[in-house]
Specification:
The chain is α/β, with parallel strands linked by helices. It has ten helices and ten strands. The chain is globular and about 55 Å long.
Length: 266
């Protein structure tokens, strides 16, 4: 099939189902080009090692399902490490509840916000997918599960700031930007730490739609406080000053992680 024939075939499919054009517009290289139009001198956040974040040899034990849509073990370990010595945690986006479950081993005051099952089903989402939200975290009665859409949720009504905040909801540009703005407007105090999931598709591939939303939603004065924890898919805001390195892809490995797996019936 020639390129012209492919073009004609593609146009026919797009005419039948116009939403297919989003598959093109959402390509990461297109998002990267859009990102560079606004931030031509910035291709990534400075990187900080997990050893430097924990101020020693990085060591953490986490529980996870290892299923689709979950976090890397290092993502969960990062959150659990940052939670040490903190008193409160708030997250946007519960999914199965692995993140808040692990953080709750360090922090008693944990809150997670997610769409209600009814709203997810009303949006046409798979019923079982909706039912699986919080399947792990709801086993801990101390974790507060809030239901709501961050588009309309009254963050100010919480009347509270948090030590550690995790943003892992809708990953579209519009919603990451919105959630970030709400967090910095209503939930942070002078020493709060904010973590975003899916800043990267993997530790070596930045997700530019999310990256742009993080920058656009975070007050410019705080851009200097943004980092990419190495070996994770996360971005990090903290007032801590870390030794940093430049992002590289492909990257020469600096750390070899030891992983001991133990399965337990759920």
């Amino acid at each position: 099939m020639t390129k012209f024939q492919k073009l004609i075939k593609s146009i026919k499919h797009i005419i039948k189902q116009p939403s297919l054009v989003n598959l093109i517009l959402d390509q990461n290289y297109i998002r990267k080009a859009e990102f560079q139009e606004k931030y031509p001198l910035l291709l990534s956040l400075p990187e900080v090692s997990l050893d430097d974040i924990c101020n020693g040899n990085f060591l953490a034990e986490v529980d996870l399902f290892i299923l689709d849509g979950g976090s890397l073990p290092t993502d969960l370990a990062l959150l659990k490490t940052l939670a040490k010595g903190k008193n409160s945690y708030f997250e946007i986006g519960t999914w199965r509840g692995e993140s808040v479950w692990n953080v709750a081993k360090e922090i008693e005051d944990c809150t997670t916000l997610n769409l209600s099952k009814a709203e997810m089903e009303a949006m046409g989402w798979n019923k079982k997918y909706a039912e699986l939200h919080g399947i792990l975290s709801k086993k801990n009665p101390k974790i507060l599960h809030l239901e709501g859409n961050t588009k309309t949720f009254d963050f100010a009504g919480l009347n509270k700031t948090y030590d550690l905040i995790f943003i892992d909801g809708d990953h579209s540009y519009e919603m990451v930007k919105h959630d970030t703005e709400q967090v910095f407007k209503h939930l942070v105090h002078d020493n709060s730490i904010v973590v975003w999931h899916d800043y990267a598709y993997n530790p070596e591939k930045i997700r530019y739609e999310v990256f742009k939303a993080i920058l656009d939603g975070t007050p410019k004065a705080f851009h200097k406080n943004l980092y990419h924890p190495q070996n994770t898919m996360c971005a990090l805001f903290t007032t801590e000053n870390y030794k940093t390195s430049s992002f590289q892809s492909p990257k020469t490995p600096e750390y070899l992680f030891k992983v001991n797996l133990e399965s337990n019936k759920f």
